[in-house]
């Protein structure tokens, strides 16, 4: 009789074990960890072209910005400080590009920087300085190496810095060659006076330091020594002994495996019209594995040693290419060896189309980056170390496409496979990725627009929890802007924990004060920008943190659209009267300054896009093109109104306004790519894009140059754009005003809108209810059925102004009953009743018939509850409803 007790005990133990497993996660190194075990914290944002970072003791992060800024994130105080500002040449792609700490940093406090020196002399410098007490001592600068460059033509500067475990310093340099006048070929222009357009003078030149990865040993007194084992032995005529890797175009990001010593580098590829042997365009980006020094092919080979034909810029003829086994640099601009080392193929390569060899990488524009190799044994006691699943894997990432991949190798160290890493997140141009000593991942994101300070340029910390998972903190505020004093209610109700059963506690920090509780209220007495930090604890040592800002000193404008018409529905032949009102606490506002827009949107669900972006509703006719642009790689080079690598869409619209055939020309440009119209920088082709889709994109771009007629602040608008039976379209009238800003707070928007939809609403589209939905495929219809006494459906925020009747398409196929329309709750006032008989409607098609119920005169918007009642208490089906319709007469 003790057996049940034994089973009871085993059940308890098993339940506890399962709960423990749920908290601990799988320890099986063959099982990929669940995405819920990662937390992502934005430490700083709004950065100005971040380039490279160094993680200092205590998890302080120092990073450089291309225009010369050096900034420090202090982990203890969670603040971002400006440390220094280098005077740099920041034209083309030059600037302050790299930073790394000396391997003995904790003793000597040396940081190394790579930057383009300001002034007339075209030179990039590698130098060393001391960093003490959060200050960069510029007076301690010691020059290690200077590299002559050219600053006439763009592009490719690279500039990344890394040390290996032997204390050797690596520096990547771009080919620094005219990349904008290639006519779709490689830059091997040997014509007199075109030396700066010949990559054979730089990356393929054994006597030049550009287009390389250099390896040197910095000396304490300055300068450097040459370590053993570089590509060319010291003293070899016509070579530079600093060269470790040559034949690179723009080796932007690389890493060194501390276990194998292998170097992995991403090389950003060209846009070319030449094809590989398999027919694919040779616009390849590469990830290369360097086991020993070598030549990696550019400008003669790409990918798996695919050969470029030799283009003669003088005659315009394409001749045969080089031999990868014995490439010869016969350019008159070559100052080094004529015979180069055999070319080494890439480990991973992919172009603008979908790759048949590496299908996970996607398509579109590309900028391949090689990140770190993860080894678990380097993080034995690290609290945030990754799962053993990633042991020995290389992380690569994509600036343009925004992904991270984990690359696995076979026993011989060769490429085996790749898989997405953190695929539940999209990254905005990741530019640097490093592991901290505690196992956390730090990521720099460059942001959307090139050469710009981007609001989405960030420093991010990512933590992995093998055991107890950290809670996810979330802050909701009732108002984020307002005049002083401003009382704000804050809620942590949206926070959550992936481990079931954890009791969460909440700690708030604002104005150097702490508060506790899931909801708190705080009054900010003076104007200013205030940081609010929320820490959520789970009682097991796990904490999740997030923050938001409260802006005190400027109140959003108050904008209203007044109307005597119904604010929910349009009716055939109707009109919409309106009057705009606007006020602002800090500014004097004229209603003439309010931006008004009105239009008909064929797909009503698209109205949310207009309202969120403040767009003219008329632009929705170009929505498909807008969405195509958003989903392709276009944003990496273009924006609507901010300068980037390519022209703004507004500039394109202005140039081609009214020109015959512009749509065809631009659509072809999008598909085939090209250069020359806006400078010589090449535009990526999109050969997989359908011609019709490219035309939709062009129509949207050209629409940005069209000026709509300004609406008066008061008037009457005809509702005549919809077609009879058009159930999906909506009319949208929107009003928006931006104030002047006040008390150091940026300008704020005030807005209001009226959205009018078809008065026929499908019953199954209810916002809440306790009924079932049937779908009849053969009849292409869905309806509400299984209605019993006490069932209901409700619709939120429906205006009953001028509504006189409600029609129902009902099927009287049951016991019958009454439809009662209640305001704002199931028990609210009843404004309409409609009786549905038992049995069937006589003469009705398939039992369906429209029936009408009158509505008591009601003003304003309410939540409507359609409650179905029957005196009988038995669970009987009453009737079914297909749709309901609101009538104004």
Automatic annotation (TrEMBL):
Residues 174-185 have a biased composition (Polar residues). Residues 1-24 form the signal peptide. Heme c binds at residues 634, 638, 683. Transmembrane segments: none annotated. Residues 174-202 are annotated as: Disordered. PROSITE patterns: CBM6, CYTC, PKD, PROKAR_LIPOPROTEIN. CDD domains: CBM6_xylanase-like, PKD. Binds 1 heme c group covalently per subunit. This is Cytochrome c. It comes from Parapedobacter indicus. Residues 620-705 form the Cytochrome c domain. SUPFAM superfamilies: Cytochrome c, Galactose-binding domain-like, PKD domain, Soluble quinoprotein glucose dehydrogenase. GO terms for molecular function: carbohydrate binding; electron transfer activity; heme binding; iron ion binding. Residues 759-887 form the CBM6 domain. Keywords: Electron transport, Heme, Iron, Metal-binding, Signal, Transport. Residues 188-197 have a biased composition (Basic and acidic residues). Residues 501-552 form the PKD domain.
